[in-house]
Amino acid sequence: MKDYQIAILLATYNGEKYLTEQIDSILSQTCHDWHLYIHDDGSKDSTMTIILDYVNRYPNSVTLLDYPSQGGACKNFLSMLERIEAPYYMFCDQDDVWLPEKIKTSFDKILEIEKIHSSNTPIIVNTDLTIVDEHLETVCSSFWSQERICPTWLKTYNDHAAIYSATGCTMLFNHRTKEIVKHPFLYATMHDAWVNLSVAAVNGPICYLPVSHILYRQHSHNIQGARDSNTFTIGYRLKNILKIIGINIRHYQEMNSIKRISIGCFVLAKIRYKWYIRKNRFTDRTNEMFR
Question: How do beta strands 34-40 and 6-12 pair?
């Protein structure tokens, strides 16, 4: 283990446009008990020049990992997780902005949860996000509201069939989580979902803080991000039915490879979740979002 507590894992690829703003926001955190690790996936722009500049200026805080390209964000993040040893971990996208209290808020919460559970318990803390455009103008104050995510509904592993609830750039998790992450990563769709499902499969605590300390930038080059509100309309779903079927097939394969779940339970979880959303059967913060 290192003398810092948190390893921040930043995966980059052709990120020259926003990368400086992201790294600067990490350096401006109120909590300084971290080290930033960066692995580039073969950028062809000036991303590497930007990274090396920070490595040279902040050698005690920023490290460039030198190993071959992994061929995508999911493999890139998981490859870093395999290589780095630390008490706690955070994933970091290259194009967002972290508000000053982001690390401290999640770190304080995971330490609080650890007092309740044994040291051998995998724990994840997630938060909400503020969706912004490429100029950091607010589009939606709550990613959970935009994506119809009601965290308190997700109590069992099967419940996670209903919706992808994890957003990697908000996650903070302990070393035990890394140890139980399911291998191999053959059916992993994204790094954050894979880690989240691995913990849910063993009933580890997954905490959702109803706060946002990250500006989640949406632009034309996002690999994955917030959906447009039209995504939820019947017209959109009919037009994109094959795409939606493909997403659900991959989601089922991912879940079934981590912990067995029948197709019936998978489909039922989705139906129950949509029904509860429509009936407004929630009492937490997200319930107010849908009123």
Answer: parallel
In a domain, 101, yes or no: yes
Within a domain: residue 68?
yes
Which domain CATH number covers 10? 3.90.550.10
Separation of alpha carbons 166 and 208, rounded Å: 9
Answer for the pair 1, 86: CB distance below 8 angstroms, yes or no: yes
Q: What is the pLDDT of residues 118-140, one digit of tens each?
A: 889 999 999 999 999 999 999 99
Q: Is residue 1 part of a domain?
A: no
Amino acid at 228: D
**Distance between CA atoms of 170 and 101, rounded to whole angstroms?**
12
Identify the CA nearest to 65 among candidates 1, 27, 3, 9: 9
What number of CA atoms fall less than 13 Å from residue 74's CA on the CB side?
13
- Predicted confidence (pLDDT) per residue in 47-93, tens digit: 999 999 999 999 999 999 999 999 999 999 999 999 999 999 999 99
Question: In sequence order, which residues have a C-beta less than 8 Å from that of residue 241 and are 6 or more positions away?
Answer: none
pTM, two decimal places: 0.89
65, two tokens: 């990992």
Provide the residue type at 100 as one letter. P
Rg (C-alpha) for the chain, rounded Å, is 19
